[in-house]
Amino acid sequence: MAKMNKKWVILCSTAVAAVYAAGYFTTETQASIQQQPQHTQINIQSNGGQSNDTSINKSPTSSLYQDGTYTGMGRNRRGSIQVAVTIKNDKITDVEISDFAMHYSESDVVGMPEEVIQNQSAKVMNVSGATYSTQAFEDAVLDALSQAQNA
Amino acid sequence: MTANQWIKSPKGYVAIAIVAYLLIASIGSQDMMGIINGIVAVGVSVVVDIICSRIEKRKRIMPDGAVITGLIISLILSTTTSWPIVAATAAISILSKHLLVHKKKPIFNPAALGLLLSILFFQTEQSWWGAFGDLPVWTVTFLLIGGYAVTNRVNKYPQVFSFLGTFFILLFFMGHFNVGDASDALRPPFINAALFFGFFMLTDPPTSPAKVKGQIFFGILAAVAGAVVYGLFGGLMYLFIGLLIGNLFHLLKTRSSSQRKVAERLEL
């Protein structure tokens, strides 16, 4: 088979690059939405169940975290994980993966919520070898905890 | 074949490019685990290839193809992958090259099949780190330089252009109509994966057609199948599935043309 003419190589390369650029700019909005941190706080419960006003529960002496359920997001180049972390009396009582949008299998992180509750820490063992999913999960839990701290 | 001749051969071009990528990506990410995985994958690939060639009583045993398969595997598997998994993936790839054959030629791209089975069997994390997925965007230039050199050497421009062109057109429409996650596929590390795949895996001469028409159809088929799988399921298997479907098409076409030739001879 004869070699492709250089002019055709340049022409085809330009066409491919143009199509790529069109796709890139078409998905620009979608990509920028994904990049934005999605911090939400749901189901805030007051300490002792006395009031729904979170401001009055901040006592200077006591708790590190405000009771409630907080959602945190962890993201890297391979996707994102959203978790819902429930805090009660400064303890992590529940962790749920509310959205798994990594490009890897969800089974890699399935045991991690339990590990966070047991260790009371965002740091988990990466037993599955799933570095990027583990990283995103830890970041999501840390994000939720920082919201609980700042609430 | 002398060393000088080998360097100028298609396999020589591919080997030089991917060894350079292994070194650049390792230095760029300051992680030497990829090189260790590379040594393991190449070692296992060569040993399995030699054993299989001896069992098949081949006259010429030259494991350069196995070296390339091992290197590609190590560039795609995450650097945190344990060495037994790297070794198993390499062994599966080389075994497929010797077991799934038609007229002594492999049916499927060995690295693509091995890596696909590796996800299914071992749930391996594939980061495409050797395609500079974790490095700054400008490093894609290295992929393009090496990719064009290899494509030119193996004479596969029609296949590469038809694959990339079709794939990007489909991603454009997916992005426009909000189907699947097209924005990810057009950005690092996934765009790096698509380029590395298109230049270095799709162009594998034994498992893809040589004629222009065949190349164009092969490229379009691999792109359509890959984009459909990506649109439906996401994940990271879409490129491999696309290529394996293309490989099957190539097998069917080769078989039908050889059957036609036999029929023509019989008629004569």
Automatic annotation (TrEMBL), chain A:
Q: Report domain FMN-binding positions.
A: 77-148
Q: Which stretches does UniProt call biased (Polar residues)?
A: 46-69
Region Disordered, residue ranges: 36-73
Q: Which residues form the signal peptide?
A: 1-21
What's the protein name? FMN-binding protein
InterPro entries noted in UniProt: FMN-bd
Coiled-coil features, chain-numbered ranges: none
**Ranges annotated as biased composition (Low complexity):** 36-45
Q: Which UniProt keywords apply?
A: Signal
From TrEMBL, chain B:
Keywords attached to this entry: Flavoprotein, FMN, Membrane, Phosphoprotein, Translocase, Transmembrane, Transmembrane helix, Transport
Q: In its keyword annotation, does this UniProt entry include Transit peptide?
A: no
* Cited InterPro entries: NqrB/RnfD (IPR004338)
User: Transmembrane region positions?
Assistant: 12-29, 35-52, 61-77, 107-123, 129-148, 160-179, 185-202, 214-230
Coiled-coil annotation reads none
Whether Lipoprotein counts among this entry's keywords is no
Q: Which domain of life is it from?
A: Bacteria
User: Known PANTHER family for this protein?
Assistant: ELECTRON TRANSPORT COMPLEX PROTEIN RNFD, ION-TRANSLOCATING OXIDOREDUCTASE COMPLEX SUBUNIT D
Protein name in UniProt: RnfABCDGE type electron transport complex subunit D
